[in-house]
Amino acid sequence: MNLALCALLFAMLSAGQSPFTFEVASIRLQPWTNEGRVEVYVRGNTLYGEHVDLYRLIDFAYGLRPDEAQLSGGPAWARHGILSDVSGAESVLYYVEAKAPDGPPPNMTEFRLMLQALLAERFQLRVHHVQRDLPVFRLVVAKDGPKFRLSAVDTKPALAMADGPPFRIHALHESLKSLVDNLADPNHGTRRPVIDQTGLQGFYDFDIAWSPDDLASSADTEGPSIFDAVRRLGLKLEPATAPFDTIVIDHAERPSGN
Fold it and tell me: How much is the pTM?
């Protein structure tokens, strides 16, 4: 989406207007009962949220990092919904089901805009944007250079991953994008964005494995730390900061009726 269109859409949303709205939407409390999903997802022309707090809904609506580093403010009930209280007392977790109009399913950008409009309507959500420097990792080539090989031209591309532990990647004729994406993954990676500054633009064969449960080296973990695993490839993860658009909640209320 180009900047002019983004600016127009943001102006419309700020004025309480949206070219993208759900045909019907339901939001209700959904106390945690030790089973079920905890996420926002799209299936066909319907957006679902299961056991989600307002923070998680905003993260999805604005395409923010899953670690909540780009989101702040709001009332206490808006974040960290109860996932340990089987009784659901004081729960702030919600079930959301929002159906788009009939026709071809919206793309992900449109779903996000529709959810933004829904949150503004049902939660009376108002936010503003602030540019901030946030922690990231830079992936660079180590002193002795990469220790994996450039793939032969006629190699058939293949990418296999196993959750383990340890988490493993076996790649043939792959760019480093798949590695970078997994290094940044909130479930088994560094839980921070990873910026590729290796300058390696080709297709490579490589194997890597690390313990997703311990970011530091430890004899008790099943596999090396993610940092040691990267070093074995002749690469290095360096802590750094980078500018991000962040969201600050100015106002939010518990959702209105369906």
Answer: 0.71
